[in-house]
Amino acid sequence: MKLKEIGEFGFIDRIKSLCLISEENVIKPIGDDCAVYELEGSRVGLMTTDMLVENIHFLRNRMTPFELGYKTLAVNLSDIAAMGGTPRHAFLSIAIPEDVSVEFLDELYEGMLSLGKEYRVNVLGGDTAGSKTDLVLNIALIGEATRDQVLYRDGAKPGDRIYVNGCLGESAAGLELLLGDLDIKGTLRRHLLNSHFQPEVFVRQGRFLAQSGFVTACIDLSDGISSDISHVCRESGVGAVLHRSDLPVSPELKEFSDITGKDPNDIILAGGEDYRLLFTVQKDNAAELEKRYKDKFGSPLFCVGEITEGREILLKDERALLSRLSPAGWDHFSTD
Ligand code: ADP
Ligand code: MG
Fold first, then answer.
1. Nearest-angstrom CA–CA distance, 324 and 33
2. Residues within 6 Å of ligand 1 by CB
3. Which pTM does this prediction carry?
C-alpha cells in the first residue's frame, strides 16, 4: 500500500494503538500536541518532537541559518504552548550534508539559542549525522505543567465558541512571496516573510488560557485552520462551523490580498504554519475570557465559529450559506 492512500494522519492512526506498550504513568499517548506523563505530585511532564526537512519544510538558500534555527525551536515551543505548559529542555538532532559550513551551523545554533534564552530552554543534547544532500533538523522538547491545567484536543463540547489568538494567513502569504515572483518589496515583504521564518510563539498565552479554567480544548495552528479544527473535532467527537467572515485578517494580509487580487479568507483557509492557538470556550465564559485576555496581553481574541453536535465541519460564508469544509491543510502524503 502506498502512504498516500492513507495519508499522514491515517498512518499515525494505524500505529497509534500499537505504540502504547505500558500505560504506567502515561496520561496522554499519541494524539495530541504533546504526550503527557506523570511526574511527582501535581506536576506532569510534556514531550513533543517536530522535524524540519530541507526541500519539504524549508529551502536552505532562501532563509538565513539564524531563521532556520529559530524556527526549528519555535515550532516545538508552539506544541508546548498548545498544552498550556512551560518548556524546559530540548535535544537537537541534525543530519548535515557536506556543503553546509561550520559558520552556517554556528548561526543556526545562534538562532535556536536566542529563542531558547527567551524561554529559558536548555539544549541538553542531540545527535549529529551526515546526510547525502538534504539538511534535516529535529528537536525533541520537554516541558512541564500542573496536572489539572493541561489543555487537550479532546474536550470541546457542542455550543462552545471557537477562538484564535491572532491574525492568520500571513505565513502562507510569506511562503507565496518566497516561492513566487510577486513584485512586493519593503516592509510588507519583510513582515510577511518574517511571519513565515520566525513565527511568534504563545507560551505565556497558552499558560494563561490553561490557568483560566475556561478553555475546553486547544491546538496550535500548524497545518492550517481547516485541518487543525478537524483534529480537535475528531478527538472531541464533535463537529464545527467556522465563520468565514470572522477569520481575522491583519492589515498586512489585506494589503497583500489587494495587490494579488486574492481573497484573504481563501489564503487563511488554504494556508498553514500560523502557529497561533486555536481553542474552544464554553459560551457563557467567552466574554469574560475575552476581557481577561485583552487586559493581560493587550491584544484581542477572535471568535471564528462554534462547536456543533455531529461530526461535520462546515464553513458559513458571507451570505450565511453553509458548505462542507474539507481539511485543506498540510498532510505530508496526501494526493493533492
Ligand atoms: P503536531 O502537528 O501538533 O506536531 P502531529 O500531527 O505531527 O502533531 O502529530 C499528531 C500526533 O501523532 C502526536 O501525538 C505525535 O507525537 C504523533 N506522531 C506523529 N508522527 C509519529 C510517528 N512517526 N510515530 C509515533 N507517533 C507519531
Ligand atoms: Mg501542534
1. 25
2. 12, 15, 19, 30-33, 50, 79, 222
3. 0.96
